[in-house]
Amino acid sequence: MPKKILKKELIKKEDGRYLYLYSWAGDEAEKDAEKEETPKAGKTNENC
Amino acid sequence: MSELRWNPLRQEWVIIATHRMNRVLHPPRDYCPLCPTLPGGFETEIPRPYFEVAVFENRYPSLHLVPPEPDVAGTELSPVAPAGGVCEVVVYTPEHEGSLATLSRDRVIQLIHVWQDRYLEISSREGIRYILIFENRGPEVGVTLSHPHGQIYAFPFIPPVPALELASARAHREKTGRCLFCDLLAEELADGRRIIMESAGWVAFVPFAARYSYEVHLYSRRCLAALTELHDGEVEELAAMLQEMVACYDGLFDAPFPYLMILHQAPVQGGDGEERGHLHFKFYSPVRDRNKLKFLAGCEQGAGTFINDAAPEKKAAELRASLEKVRRGQDSHDNR
């Protein structure tokens, strides 16, 4: 199953507060995001 | 008035936030501020007719991105500070009814990714030291909006509960060279009587010294510091465990079960060598039995010593039985 990538849209509310709408990116965005994926997954706490 | 006041006796900051007295309390369904805004309808916090997961700054924040100057002057003994920080609301779904248990598995996985993103983004903001992701559920714990949602508080200091746990973890590490949380998890697994459920990456259990009758802790098996370090399989397992935990609670008395769900992750913007803890969730509930609530009374509030009216081993058995019932119901539903 292809990995889903989260995307977010920023909306500035009238009173100045921010609102983020999160959704799964479509296939095109998915390909782009996979290229930039951060290598954090699987890292173990260095304290241990 | 919105400011931090220092209590030198307890060595803790108290947030004074008088504007929160005016929060919306239990609005009728048509005026739920967490629902989507429908054409011609009431304008909610989310100006769209549909969304998946929404995150916005709390209209009544305890901590402010740009905090006001304190209204009162502190003293050397009792200082006052601006109430800087972040308070966000995380709306899990556009559906007004439901819970973590009734969301689709895909939506809960998405929610965990949202939590990861918020942790990363907020941790980069200046002055933030600790990010607390949590959910309050049920009027019994003071919830004012029933629409499925959680919250995020980002503090300019490490609050007392994680600070104490991190200090304990540091002392244990200095003494043994090991992680306190890992050692506690190993003890729970070796005993086994308080385990509720396990997966390859996670273990849920009623802790040995539970303060609340139905207190449950959910630990990652790997010693991780934050959600951002999970791999995809662990995220999927976590989504399943969170959903089963809430369904298990609801199945106890066949009614929505009130709880506080707290996510503990590493402090942010700390120095090298700072104790980072161990990724885990805690579930607390005021329920101690059917139609019986636990109140924090004289011994708990006055002495700080909790009295638990039930043996953790017995409550763990009740929770396992409820989970079994939930899973049987799911199986029979799947086989229809």
Describe the secondary structure blueprint for this structure:
The complex is a heterodimer of chains A (48) and B (336).
Chain A: E1 6-12, E2 18-24, H1 27-35
Antiparallel strand pairs in A: 1-2
Chain B: E1 2-7, E2 12-17, E3 53-57, E4 80-82, E5 86-91, H1 105-123, E6 130-137, E7 149-155, H2 160-176, H3 180-191, E8 195-198, E9 202-205, E10 216-220, H4 232-252, E11 259-264, E12 280-284, E13 287-289, E14 292-293, H5 298-303, H6 312-334
Task: Give an overview of the whole structure.
The complex is a heterodimer of chains A (48) and B (336). Chain A has 48 residues and is α+β, with helices and mostly antiparallel strands. Chain A is built from one helix and two strands; from the N terminus they run ββα. Chain A has a two-stranded antiparallel sheet with strand order 1-2. Chain A is rod-shaped. Chain B has one domain (24-59, 85-334): HIT family, subunit A (2-Layer Sandwich), CATH 3.30.428. In chain B, α1 (105-123) packs across α4 (232-252) and α4 crosses α6 (312-334). By secondary structure, chain B is an alpha+beta fold. A nine-stranded antiparallel sheet of chain B has the order 3-5-7-6-11-12-10-9-8, sandwiched between helices. Chain B starts with a strand and ends with a helix. The mean pLDDT of chain B is 95. In chain B, a hairpin with a 2-residue loop joins β13 (287-289) and β14 (292-293). Chain A binds chain B through residues 3-4, 6, 8, 11, 13, 17-24, 40-48, and chain B through 45-48, 51-57, 59, 109-110, 113-114, 117, 173, 178-179, 182, 222-225, 228-232, 266, 275-276, 278. β2 of chain A pairs antiparallel with β3 of chain B.
